[in-house]
Design goal:
The complex is a heterodimer. Chain A is an all-alpha fold. Chain A is built from 3 helices and no strands. The radius of gyration of chain A is 12 Å and the shape is globular. The model of chain A has no long low-confidence stretch (mean pLDDT about 90). Chain B is of the alpha+beta class. The chains are: A mainly alpha, B alpha+beta.
Chain lengths: ~80, ~350
């Protein structure tokens, strides 16, 4: 699956859980530390992403703190999808 | 004449402790060192919580507002509460703590519109718009800072629902903070030496490693279908995780006093990572119901216990050395360590 398609889908799912304005140009650079979503919402996002991409997150990657920004989450899921 | 003023306040980073959050908010804002370094680390879990929703997880010591040594407390008659009174108190550096106030009339409060006794702390005022600054649960159900108009506070004070008690709180001028080494030692010992879990749910309290063993047992019971997974108790996982954060604060303070403690930070970081991972897994299980996650949680919790035994034993050894260095003087003034 194309990485851009994966990124679009991930951003769409995060947006559906976020109350923050995510209209900026480089959305992949948005940091989770800026409070886009909280840890509870993040786990809900993980579950949706697992279903969407038919993957299983590693336990160590369940924490929102595992990712500096959305781009890192995209990288992680892209690798999972590839493998 | 000032038109508005707010006293310093910090929302505690640890959110599970409603009972002590008000005291922590004042102390953390007024003292260099966090309040939670001496006590407040044992997790007391009451198995009956699951049945009765009894909020007695945590066996805090000396954490009620009127027991905090750093505070001077004065009682206020609720009939005295006028805007001018609030202004005068704040101008004199006194916070106003309202316990069991009916939140029904307080705009922006968690229970606005509902008869519900709650606690709030008033820490500021604004004459221009007649508002006061409040710390309490807001609509997001989180402990927060918000504004409300004074008249709504007064209406709540006068409500016949609830037994509102009001205290003025001022921080003692001598801002010395003491750390009690023996108290920390006994707290850690209690944590480590808590009774091994036995299959006896009638016990009132379990704590420390006992609490974690209970949690492992709880997970097994959920796995076996003995406990209803739709009523999966997330709060316990948050408490376990919060406890590690408090331990980190304590170790940070000790590290500032003795470099040997700094070397233990990495081990604690590993433990914190496990606790957070287990908490994330608990959230994932709560949302997905995937039973394989229960086994992973048990595995990580068992690993965490082993790591904690090793680390806390080392901390106890270091505390003993520190006590000897200080001629067995257990109370150490932290102000001596200010850079």
């Amino acid at each position: 699956m194309d990485k851009n398609v994966i990124a679009e889908k991930i951003v769409e799912i995060i947006k559906s859980h976020s109350e923050e304005d995510m209209q900026q140009e480089n959305v992949l650079e948005l940091s989770f530390e800026d409070g886009i979503v909280n840890s509870l919402e993040f786990v809900s996002i993980v579950i949706e992403l697992e279903t969407e991409f038919d993957i299983e997150f590693d336990d160590d990657m369940l924490l929102i703190s595992s990712y500096e920004n959305i781009g890192q989450l995209v990288d992680y899921i892209s690798k999972k999808v590839e493998s | 004449m000032v038109d508005k003023k707010e006293l310093p306040i910090v929302i505690p980073t640890v959110t599970a402790y409603h009972r002590v959050s008000f005291a922590m908010a004042i102390l953390m804002a007024n003292f260099k060192y966090d309040f939670c370094i001496n006590n407040y680390i044992n997790i007391y879990m009451n198995p009956d919580y699951i049945k009765n929703n009894d909020d007695t997880f945590l066996g805090f010591e000396k954490t009620d507002i009127d027991e905090i040594e750093e505070f001077e407390i004065g009682a206020v008659n609720k009939n005295e509460i006028e805007f001018e009174y609030v202004i005068s108190s704040i101008n004199n550096g006194k916070y106003l703590f309202f316990s069991n106030i009916n939140e029904k009339y307080i705009k922006n409060a968690r229970y606005e519109g509902i008869d519900f006794p709650h606690n709030i702390l008033v820490y500021g005022y604004n004459k221009c718009d007649g508002t006061i600054s409040v710390m309490g649960y807001d609509k997001t159900t989180k402990m927060a800072l918000y504004k409300t108009d004074f008249e709504s506070l007064k209406q709540s004070c006068n409500s016949i629902f609830g037994q509102t008690q009001i205290n003025e709180i001022s921080v003692r001028s001598q801002k010395e903070t003491f750390i009690d080494l023996e108290l920390i030692k006994s707290s850690i010992r209690n944590y480590l030496d808590s009774r091994p879990y036995i299959d006896k749910f009638t016990e009132n309290k379990i704590y420390g490693h006992d609490a974690i063993l209970y949690l492992i047992h709880y997970l097994k019971c959920v796995e076996a279908g003995i406990y209803d997974k739709s009523k999966f108790d997330l709060k316990m996982f948050r408490l376990i995780s919060d406890h590690k954060q408090l331990m980190r604060k304590r170790l940070q303070v000790l590290s500032g006093m003795e470099s040997n403690f700094s070397e233990l930070n990495d081990e604690l970081t590993d433990i914190i990572a496990i606790a957070e991972k287990v908490r994330a897994l608990s959230l994932k299980f709560f949302a997905s119901g995937k039973e394989m996650l229960l086994q992973n949680m048990q595995k990580y919790l068992n690993g965490m216990i082993e790591k904690e035994r090793t680390l806390y034993s080392k901390i106890l050894e270091e505390l003993d050395k520190m006590l000897l260095k200080n001629d067995l003087n257990t109370n150490i003034c932290l102000n001596n360590y200010v850079e």
